[in-house]
């Protein structure tokens, strides 16, 4: 059975999400949608660097999760529909397909020709697109930051800079300094 957006749904729909809620929700969604992406091809240079330095793997966008979460917002917040999900925190692939298969945004676009609903539909779609743009911007910002070579290198260095490792480094430097001083003293006596 296909999902159909009705006149009644539009009449009770939300056409505006407050900006603080947009910011908060877009950050939450973006955090969930950025993760380590398995490499489909081998890059010998970066593979060698990652093995030598144990660099964190690059992160990318999870587009299927982003689609599911943004559709959940369209249906749940804007259209005020209780989405059937197994755990009320996430849409499943089956429930996503059930709703996405009916192309809710296209249905909304077609409702723009209805003189009675036009203004509300235009407002709803414009606000939802603004929300999606905020999600995309947050994802871009997170990916840019996390994939920055210096940030990745700092994360690697942070793994090695434990109290124990710093103490060992201090001891090693002290020992090397003593050996260097002994070698220099020995060279002076030989002269």
Report on the structure:
The protein is mainly alpha-helical. The chain folds into 2 domains: 7-160, no CATH class; 162-191. It has 9 helices and 2 strands. Strands 1-2 form a two-stranded antiparallel ribbon. α2 packs antiparallel against α4 (63-78). It is rod-shaped and about 100 Å long. It starts with 6 loop residues before the first helix and ends with a helix. The model has no long low-confidence stretch (mean pLDDT 87).
List keywords for this structure.
mainly alpha, 191 residues, 9 helices, rod-shaped, 69% helix, two-stranded antiparallel sheet
Task: Give me a quick take on this structure.
The protein has helices at residues 7-11, 19-33, 44-53, 63-78, 93-100, 104-111, 118-146, 149-160, 163-190, and strands spanning 34-36, 59-61. With 191 residues, the chain is mainly alpha-helical. Helix 2 packs antiparallel against helix 4.
List the helices and strands and how they pair.
Elements: H1 7-11, H2 19-33, E1 34-36, H3 44-53, E2 59-61, H4 63-78, H5 93-100, H6 104-111, H7 118-146, H8 149-160, H9 163-190
Antiparallel strand pairs: 1-2
Number of strands: 2
Instruction: Give the ordered list of helices and strands.
Output: HHEHEHHHHHH
Give the CA-CA distance, first to last residue: 96 Å
Radius of gyration: 28 Å
- What proportion of the residues form beta strands (DSSP E)? under 5%
Mind describing the biggest β-sheet? 2 strands, antiparallel
**Average pLDDT:** 87
Low-confidence segments, given as residue ranges, are: none
Shape: rod-shaped
Q: By helix and strand content, what is the structural category?
A: mainly alpha
Percent helix, as a range, is 55-70%
Q: How do the strands of the widest beta sheet line up side by side?
A: 1-2
Total number of helices = 9
Task: Supply the number of structural domains.
Answer: 2
């Amino acid at each position: 059975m296909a999902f159909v957006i009705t006149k009644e749904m539009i009449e009770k729909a939300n056409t505006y999400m407050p900006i603080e809620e947009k910011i908060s929700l877009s950050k939450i969604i973006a955090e969930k949608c950025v993760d380590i992406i398995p490499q489909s091809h081998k890059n010998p240079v970066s593979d060698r660097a990652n093995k030598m330095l144990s660099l964190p793997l690059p992160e990318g966008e999870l587009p299927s999760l982003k689609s599911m979460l943004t559709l959940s917002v369209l249906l749940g917040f804007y259209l005020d529909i209780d989405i059937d999900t197994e755990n009320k925190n996430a849409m499943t692939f089956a429930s996503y397909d059930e709703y996405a298969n009916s192309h809710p945004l296209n249905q909304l676009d077609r409702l723009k020709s209805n003189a009675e609903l036009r203004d509300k539909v235009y407002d709803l779609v414009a606000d939802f697109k603004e929300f999606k743009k905020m999600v995309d911007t947050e994802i871009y910002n997170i990916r840019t930051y996390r994939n920055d070579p210096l940030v990745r290198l700092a994360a690697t260095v942070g793994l090695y800079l434990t109290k124990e490792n710093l103490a060992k480094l201090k001891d090693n430097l002290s020992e090397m300094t003593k050996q260097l001083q002994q070698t220099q003293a020995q060279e002076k006596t030989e002269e």
